[in-house]
C-alpha cells in the first residue's frame, strides 16, 4: 500500500503529496489524516497522510517507507484534509500551512531522529570513536542533534554507522507526550478483603499496615503524590505493598482543565420573546433539515442573541450532532464561558489562546474523543475535530480578528461556510453591526432563495422592551474654545460625578486603534522612530522605554531631543495610564480598573478584573477595545468614549465601519438591566456619518451611506481584494521587481480578457493597482511595496496570481524579493 504524504516544509516547491510505502506493520493503522514521520531529503520530517492508494506512479523500488506513525489514531479526518486543500487554494498558502493550523501546537513538535546501537552489531564498531559509542550505549536512544553537538567531529562517522547498520535510527516527535500522566495508586480491594490483605503484612511494618487501611477504607485510586502527602508515608512503603500485589501503581492520563474547581451555576432555557422565537424557529428548521444555510442574525445589543444560540445548540445536540461557537478572542470572557458551561455543563470544550499548550491539547482531545458536544473558542476553533457538525455560530461576526494575519491568512467566517457545506451544518452569523460583506451576501441569498425563509434574521428590540441608551455627542473643539484643556469634556465630567454619587458604574473606552503614545520634540518636530521600521516608537511608562511594536526594538527614552538638544521633548497621545491619572485628579478616591495590553498579559488577569468590576469593587472600568464587547453588568449606567475618531483617520477603507461598530458596541454596554443607561461620545468630527448614525443606533442609515462610498471607490462588497506585499532590503531592486510583477499580472489578466477598471460596467473585471509603497514602508530593515488586486464576477484571481507568482518565486535564489499574499485582507498595512 502507498500513502501520499504532505511533508511539513512550507515552500511552494514541496507543496504536493509525496508517495511512501506503508510498512507491513503499520498497514491497518495508517489512515487519511494520520501524522507520520517520513524520510525527506536526508532528514526525517513530520507529515500528514492525505491519501491512500494501491499504486504509485513512481517506481515502487525507489519509494521510501514511512518511518513512524506518530499517534495511535489520526488527529485529522478526511474532511479536514480536504478543507485544508481548499484553504491553500483560496488563500494562496501551502497545504501544509493549512494542515498545521488545524492541530493543537502540542502536536506540532518537530520530528526528531534518535540513534541507538544495533544489538547484533555491538562488536562491529565500524569506525565509531569510543566516546561516541560509550555515550550511545549508556543513553540510547540519543537525539541525533544532541549527539552531533556533543561530538561535532564525529558526524561523518555517525552517518557511516547508520549506513552500515551499526547504528539504528528511530523518529520521534518532540512534545508528543503532551498527554500528562500521573502515577496513581489503586487498592486491590476488588480481589481481596482488607483483613486478608493485612494478614500478609508483618505486624512490625506499622507504616505499611496504616497505609493499607487508609487505602482500603478510601477504596478509590489516589495520585501517589497526594497519598504520600496525606498519610506522611514514604514511597518505599507503597512499593512494598505493590510488591505484594496489594496495590497497583500505574500511570493515569490526566486532563488539564482550565476551569477545574470552578462551578458554573446551571441555567435553564428562558422563555423566548416573540422575536427570539421567530429567529429560533428559522434556525432550527434549517438544523433539522441538515441545510447548510447561512443566516445573518442582526440583533441590537442586549436583544438576547446568546439565548437564541443556546437554545438552537440544544436542538442541534438533540439530533446527535455537534456545535461550534466562535467568539472574538477578547470577548471570550468568563461571563461568556459561564453562560455556555451553565447550560451544557461538561459537554463544552473551551479553546482560546490564553490556555497553556497542554490545556489546549486536552480540550482538543475532549472533542476528538467525543467527550463533548459543543466547542466554544476563538478563530481556530473552527477546526474543532467534530465528526457530525450540525450548527456553527459566529458571534460578533464583523470582528476583524476572525481573519488570521499570518499564514494561512484565512477568514474563519468563510472557512465556516465551507465546513458547514461539508457537514450539512447550518451557519448563524450574529452581530448588532454586521460587516458589509455579510450583509450584502445575506441580502443576495434572500433574493435568490426560495422565498420561504429569509437569510436575514432581525432582532430589532432589546429584551423586555428596554430602550437603547441615549447617546450624546460632545464636540471637543468647542471644549477647547471654552478653555477646557482636559481630556474630559464638561459633560462627561459631570456624568461621571453623578455616577459616583449614586454608586453606579461607568465604562470608559479609549479608542486607541492607530493611536499610540509617541515622543515628539516641540521645538524641532523630531519624533522618535524605529531604526529598522518606518514607524514611530511607543512610549512605555512603566519601563521608561521606547519600543517598536513591529520588530521589538527598544531604547531608553531621553529627556533631551537628540536632534536639537531642546528639552521640550514630550510624550503625545492619550494612553490609558494618562486617563487613569487624570481621573484620579478629577475625582480623588475614585476606584478605577484599567484594562489594556499592559494589565492583561498575566494569565487569568482578564477574568480577575471583570470579576472585581462585577462585584462593584470599582467605579470605573477603563480600557481599550476589550471593554467594548460582550460585557453585561447591571450597574453600568454610563458609557463614555474618550476619542471616538482616532480610528477614523487610518489608511483603511473600513475606518468608518470600524468606528461605527465600536461606538455601537460600547454604547450597548449601558443600561442593559433595570437601571437606564446613558452614553457620552467625545469627538473632533461630530458630523461624520459613522458618529451620527451610531448616535441614533441606526445601522440602516449607516449602511446606506457607507455602501455609497464603497460603490464609488470600488471597495468590498462591490468587489473583492487581494493584497500582494513585496519586500526586499534594497529599494531599487524591489521597485524594479515590483514593476515587473505588476506588468506580468496585467498582461496575464489582459490575456484572460478580464483586465478592466472596476468603474466600467463590465460584469467581470479585474484592476491591478500599484506597485506603491506600503503604508508602513519599511519593516525590520526590509522595504515594502504593495499591489492591490480588485476584481469582481467569476474571475479566478487566485489562480491567475498563482501562475504569475510561480515565475517570480522560482529562479532567483539570491536576495529574493519576498511575496506575501493576503486574500480578502482586513488590514492594509
Ligand atoms: N427570553 C428572555 N427572557 C428574559 N431575559 C432574557 C431573554 N433572553 C435574553 N435575556 C436576558 O437579556 C440580557 C441580554 O441578552 P444577551 O446578552 O443574550 O443579548 P445579546 O444580544 O447577546 O447582547 P450583546 O450582543 O449586546 O452582547 C441577558 O441578561 C439575558 O439573560
Ligand atoms: Zn521596528
TrEMBL record:
Its cofactor is Zn(2+). PANTHER family: PRIMOSOMAL PROTEIN N. GO terms for molecular function: 3'-5' DNA helicase activity; ATP binding; DNA binding; hydrolase activity; zinc ion binding. The keyword GTP-binding does not apply. Belongs to the helicase family. PriA subfamily. Keywords: ATP-binding, DNA replication, DNA-binding, Helicase, Hydrolase, Isomerase, Metal-binding, Nucleotide-binding, Primosome, Zinc. Residues 286-452 form the Helicase ATP-binding domain. Its EC number is 5.6.2.4. This is Replication restart protein PriA. InterPro entries: DEAD/DEAH_box_helicase_dom, Helicase_ATP-bd, Helicase_C-like, P-loop_NTPase, PriA, PriA_3primeBD, PriA_3primeBD_sf, PriA_C. HAMAP family: PriA (MF_00983). Zn(2+) 1 binds at residues 521, 524, 561, 564. It catalyses: ATP + H2O = ADP + phosphate + H(+); Couples ATP hydrolysis with the unwinding of duplex DNA by translocating in the 3'-5' direction. Binds 2 zinc ions per subunit. Zn(2+) 2 binds at residues 530, 533, 548, 551. One of its GO terms (biological process) is double-strand break repair. Residues 545-739 form the Helicase C-terminal domain.
